[in-house]
């Protein structure tokens, strides 16, 4: 069940989200679209962090995103993309109008059945759906500890797999896992957490306590203590489906 307040928490940020959230490796886009297509939709596109990898893979790139602040950043960054307000449950496109749909870091916010039906409607027969998530590398104890602070209910659950196994109207074709490492300053790592839904909805006092807990993790771990720049490993999961 998607919690509405958390799903809407992105309405109020754009610039900070774009500046501090991680991007995606090119191999993730390769895994969804190994060859270029006519039209691709990035659904829940945010500020365009995944959309930018689609530009040279489709003749037309469309980005649908409910938050006006997110869309404004995307419009400035990627003027060649057709940005539109809308949601996954009510996609503002004609039936059978796109060859592929990508959803990066957003499918878990959607009403699963309604979104699956809408995605199937806008895709051509046999079209591609790619669900993409960055997640913490379980081998990185300090980052995992920070995830547990931010998302105590889900940090030990592979929620991407739960969101992505069987989808009505789709056949899973491939699951690809991409490992990559990002160099990030400690300050930016902390600011990144400030763009996460649980921090965005927390009252100021609770937010301060969450940041203090994160600082304690970074001060305690050997890999991060007294370091200005951190090596942060990521795993990117890509689930590629075909419209049945
Ligand atoms: C974590 S952000 C991911 C943004 C972007 N895809 C990325 O990877 O950077 C989740 C996005 O999903 C959007 N979103 C939330 N509920 C949605 C819905 N029902 N339909 C479409 N987008 C939604 C939010 O506005 C937000 O931009």
Provide a compact summary of the structure:
This protein is an alpha/beta fold.
Question: What does it look like?
Answer:
With 244 residues, the protein is α/β, with parallel strands linked by helices. The protein has a single domain (4-243), classed as 3-Layer(aba) Sandwich (Rossmann fold), CATH 3.40.50.150. It contains 10 helices and 7 strands. It has a 7-stranded mixed sheet. Helix 6 packs antiparallel against helix 10 (204-220). The relative contact order is 0.17. The mean pLDDT is 93. The protein binds S-adenosylmethionine. The site of S-adenosylmethionine has 21 residues, from loops.
Q: Mean pLDDT score, rounded?
A: 93
What name is given to the CATH topology? Rossmann fold
The dominant shape is globular
CATH superfamily: Vaccinia Virus protein VP39
Major β-sheet annotation: 7 strands, mixed
CATH architecture: 3-Layer(aba) Sandwich
Number of domains: 1
**What count of helical segments does DSSP give?**
10
What's the SSE pattern?
HHHEEHEEHEHHEHHHE
Using only C-alpha atoms, the radius of gyration works out to 18 Å
Poorly predicted ranges (pLDDT <50, ≥5 residues)? none
Helix content: 25-40%
Q: How far is the first residue's CA from the last residue's CA?
A: 25 Å
By CATH reckoning, the class would read Alpha Beta
Q: State the strand order across the main sheet.
A: 3-2-1-4-5-7-6
Question: What is the count of β-strands?
Answer: 7
**Percent of residues in beta strands?**
25-35%
């Amino acid at each position: 069940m998607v919690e509405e307040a958390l799903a809407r928490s992105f309405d109020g940020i754009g610039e900070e989200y774009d500046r501090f959230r991680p991007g995606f490796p090119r191999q993730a886009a390769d895994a969804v679209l190994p060859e270029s297509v006519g039209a691709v939709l990035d659904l829940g596109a945010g500020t365009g962090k995944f959309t930018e990898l689609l530009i040279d893979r489709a003749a037309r790139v469309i980005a649908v995103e409910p938050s006006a602040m997110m869309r404004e950043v995307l419009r400035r960054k990627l003027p060649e993309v057709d940005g539109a307000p809308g949601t996954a449950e009510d996609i503002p496109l004609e039936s059978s109008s796109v060859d592929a749909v990508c959803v990066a870091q957003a499918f878990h916010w959607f009403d699963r059945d309604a979104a699956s039906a809408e995605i199937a409607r806008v895709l051509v027969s046999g079209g591609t759906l790619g669900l993409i998530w960055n997640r913490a590398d379980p081998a990185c104890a300090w980052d995992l500890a920070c995830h547990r602070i931010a998302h105590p209910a889900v940090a030990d659950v592979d929620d991407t797999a739960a969101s992505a196994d069987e989808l009505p109207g789709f056949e899973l074709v491939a699951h690809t896992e991409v490992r990559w490492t990002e160099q990030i300053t400690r300050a930016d790592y902390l600011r990144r957490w400030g763009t996460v839904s649980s921090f965005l909805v927390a009252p100021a006092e609770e937010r301060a306590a969450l940041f203090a807990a994160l600082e304690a993790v970074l001060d305690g771990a050997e890999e991060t203590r007294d370091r200005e720049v951190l090596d942060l490993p990521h795993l990117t999961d890509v689930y590629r489906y075909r419209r049945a």
